[in-house]
Amino acid sequence: MGNIIWCTSFWRLKHLELDASYSIANSQPRGFELPELEFLKPTLDGLWLMPDEPDFRKKYNKALKQSHKEVAEWLDQLQGDTALACWCRSEPYTLARCHRILVALLIKTFRSDLDVRVDLKDQAWSR
Ligand SMILES: [Zn+2]
Asked: Please, where are the H alpha helices in the chain?
């Protein structure tokens, strides 16, 4: 069993060899029905956070803190080649603001034993 954690887009999943795939987005594209990691969704106090809104990072980190128990439990048991999928495409401005980056940093901070990769090859809207 490998231990690569891919922070990627829905459209890249079919190109990766994975033990498990999860959605970390607030919604999923048509045709996708991945299990959802509620505590990693960009939602704060019931409202969807958008990557281009002011203080997105601060608000997302606040949301993670509110779910810290679930997040910590999930981090503890995380293993195998796993994808965490969001919509955001690789166009630099967009991806730079996607919460995938923040999730990757979170995993790297608490699970330095895992190989965490932010997948930059996705072209979400062209497929
Ligand atoms: Zn995203």
From this structure: 56-66, 68-77, 92-97, 99-110
